[in-house]
Amino acid sequence: MPVSGEHKTVQARILKYAQEIGWTYVPRDEAERRAALTRMPRRPRSGHATSRRSLGTCCTRKLARLIRNTKTQRAVGGEFQRLHADIYGNRDFLNALRNQHKFFCSEENRELDLTLIDYDDVARSREQWRNVYEVTEEFYTHNGKHGTREDVVFLINGIRCW
Question: What is the gyration radius of the CA atoms in the chain, in angstroms?
Fold first, then answer.
């Protein structure tokens, strides 16, 4: 009797279910290509990881729709790249995920709220979703020190959720 593999018994079922509830499947090659486009090396500092936080291309497109000024778009993206790779950077990024982050809009000369994820999608029909929900498999990442391969990865607006 043939033994079922991990892909068939676990990953394939999760991917199928995710697609049934409206998530878009992104092939592994495409997901890794997108990740490579946003990966930026960082000069190592003592006690810090060597990778930068970067927003995926999907998230960058969402920011572009929200923020029309390209100078401001770059500034917001730069803020995330400058987050420390420690507990304080994690706290700041978590606040951004909770939509508690502000950015300075030079056109209006004031701070505006930044919405990375629209949590009200839960109450909307699939056709009215404002977020982009994607799922991929066998996703490999490397932080400059350690590499990891994740079996299934869920992305909301290009932000990896695990």
Answer: 18
Pairing between strand 110-114 and 101-105?
antiparallel
Q: Which residue, among 52, 57, 51, 53, has the nearest Cα to 35 in the 3D structure?
A: 57
Q: What is the pTM of this model?
A: 0.71
Euclidean distance between CA atoms 52 and 115, whole angstroms: 21
Helix, strand, or coil here: 74?
A: helix
Contacts of 71 (CB under 8 A, 6+ apart): 106
How far is residue 156's CA from residue 137's CA, in Å, rounded to a whole number? 15
Both tokens of 67, joined, read 């923020």
pLDDT of residue 104: 78
CA–CA distance, 115 with 98 (Å, rounded to integer): 8
Q: What is the pLDDT of residue 22?
A: 93
Which stretches of the chain drop beneath a pLDDT of 70? 1-4, 6, 35-75, 77, 143, 162
Please count the residues of the chain: 162
